[in-house]
């Protein structure tokens, strides 16, 4: 089980990994070994995620999500297959944690008396500056 939050955990069988050849540094190793990882997670069909978390995860994934709700993460930053696997899994876990996070609802508050007075004082100072700029008719 892969722990996402205290209430959400994924089964390893829900994640499908495939390995492809990576581009970039690595010398001849790049041409011989499939080090890049393509991780696929079917968020829409996951029994461990609530509908709200599924919807938010697919929205957060953006172009990394298919029309069927499958999140695809491609990791090829590192030269070893194992580090790329860890990187892809970390990125998926981070995405799901962000989707599971509920923002704290804002509770409306009233401005304090001191803040009201500061605002009015600032307005009167500004009004005085503008009044000084006005041209006055000569007597």
Report on the architecture of this protein:
- The protein is an alpha+beta fold.
- The chain is 41% helix and 17% strand.
- The chain is built from 4 helices and 5 strands.
- It has helices spanning 28-32, 51-61, 81-100, 113-133; strands at residues 2-3, 9-10, 15-20, 36-42, 70-75.
- The strands form 2 sheets. Strands 3-4-5 form a 3-stranded antiparallel beta sheet, covered by helices on one side. A two-stranded antiparallel ribbon has the order 1-2.
- Strand 1 and strand 2 (9-10) form a beta hairpin.
- The longest helix is centred in the last third of the chain and has 21 residues, at 113-133.
What's the CATH architecture?
Answer: 2-Layer Sandwich
Beta strand count: 5
Helix-and-strand structural type: alpha+beta
CATH class: Alpha Beta
* Radius of gyration from CA coordinates: 28 Å
- N-to-C span: 88 Å
CATH topology: Double Stranded RNA Binding Domain
Share of helix among residues? 40-55%
Number of helices: 4
Mean pLDDT: 82
The succession of helices and strands, N to C, reads: EEEHEHEHH
Determine the strand fraction and express it as a percent band.
15-25%
* Unreliable residue stretches: none
Strand order of the largest sheet: 3-4-5
What is the count of distinct domains?
A: 1
Overall body shape:
elongated
